[in-house]
């Protein structure tokens, strides 16, 4: 990895959307917020990475005038983590908490790395087949998506061996061994979301190569911002030279969704 994760910041108000200790989210309030940003942290869906490293980002977005819901979810290495539990958690969270928190403001789905994958997947839920994890459409309208250095193409990511086999661990196999899971979980293989999508990716990212985002955006399904010289973690580090691109993307999806 090119840089360590940002240090943890102040926690938000803890809210539960399920019975498990990781079926929670932290709420960061803002006076008269322009939108609610539901943020999904990264870490290749693995248990050793939790939401704490994204707290500085959540606090900074709240300071910028957005209400923020920093999500946790069950991850690989925990009971119920991986496929399908991680996807089910994200769907349940979206359907449970946002509508009661800031009901009169747009809902922006956002995420970084594996969390960017989850945000893109969640926006495509209406296209999932009946019976698939998260197939029921979100009960709260989604205005747009902002994905930061997302693992946007699971098949290509698996071929590249991203995260030392993280995608195979998440889905329980390779594209050849469990193709039905990739068909459900891979945003690039699903129809484009019906809402506007922005991707922000560093051109020098050595954790999730920018080619993964280029592949997702190739057919025009997303507005892609590539930041010259930027690595994987600058986009989640408030105060970095990459941070203004993130705020601009959230602002664009808030007002031009």
How would you summarize this macromolecular structure in one to three sentences?
It contains nine helices and eight strands. It is α/β, with parallel strands linked by helices and about 260 residues long.
Structure notes:
The structure is a single chain. This protein has 257 residues and is α/β, with parallel strands linked by helices. It has one domain: Alpha/Beta hydrolase fold, catalytic domain (Rossmann fold), CATH 3.40.50.1820. 30% of the residues lie in helices and 16% in strands. The protein has an eight-stranded mixed sheet with strand order 1-2-4-3-5-6-7-8, with helices on both faces. Strand 3, helix 1 and strand 4 form a beta-alpha-beta unit. The longest helix has 13 residues. The protein starts with 12 loop residues before the first strand and ends with a helix.
Highest CATH level, the class: Alpha Beta
Per the CATH scheme, the topology name is Rossmann fold
The CATH architecture can be given as 3-Layer(aba) Sandwich
Mean of residue pLDDT values: 94
The percent range for strand residues is: 15-25%
> Into which percent range does the helicity of residues fall?
25-40%
**Helix-strand sequence:** EEEHEHHEHEHHHEHEH
Q: End-to-end distance, in Å?
A: 33 Å
Largest sheet: 8 strands, mixed
Strand arrangement, major sheet: 1-2-4-3-5-6-7-8
Q: Tally the helices.
A: 9
Note poorly predicted spans. none
What structural class do you assign from the helix and strand content? alpha/beta
CATH superfamily: Alpha/Beta hydrolase fold, catalytic domain
The structural domain count equals 1
Compute the gyration radius: what is it?
Answer: 16 Å
Shape: globular
InterPro entries: AB_hydrolase_fold, BD-FAE-like_dom, GDXG_lipolytic_enzyme
Protein name: Alpha/beta hydrolase
Organism: Cryptosporangium japonicum
Keywords: Hydrolase
């Amino acid at each position: 990895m090119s840089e360590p994760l940002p240090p943890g910041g102040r926690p938000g108000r803890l809210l539960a959307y399920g019975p498990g200790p990781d079926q929670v989210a932290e709420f960061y309030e803002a006076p008269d917020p322009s939108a609610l940003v539901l943020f999904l942290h990264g870490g290749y869906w693995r248990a050793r990475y939790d939401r704490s490293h994204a707290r500085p980002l959540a606090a900074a977005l709240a300071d910028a005038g957005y209400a923020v819901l920093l999500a946790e979810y069950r991850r690989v290495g925990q009971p119920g983590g991986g496929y399908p539990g991680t996807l089910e958690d994200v769907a349940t969270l979206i359907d449970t908490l946002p509508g009661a928190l800031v009901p009169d403001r747009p809902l922006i789905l956002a995420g970084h790395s594996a969390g960017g994958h989850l945000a893109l997947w969640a926006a495509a839920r209406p296209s999932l087949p009946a019976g698939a994890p998260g197939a029921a459409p979100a009960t709260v309208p989604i205005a747009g998506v902002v994905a930061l250095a997302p693992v946007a193409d699971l098949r290509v990511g698996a071929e590249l061996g991203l995260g030392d086999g993280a995608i195979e661990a998440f889905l329980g196999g390779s594209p050849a061994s469990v193709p039905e899971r990739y068909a459900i979980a891979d945003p690039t293989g699903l129809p484009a979301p019906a809402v506007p999508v922005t991707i922000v990716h560093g051109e020098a990212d050595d954790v999730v190569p920018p080619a993964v985002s280029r592949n997702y955006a190739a057919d025009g399904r997303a507005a892609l911002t590539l930041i010259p010289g930027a690595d994987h973690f600058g986009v989640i580090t408030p105060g970095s030279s990459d941070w203004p691109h993130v705020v601009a993307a959230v602002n664009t999806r808030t007002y031009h969704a």
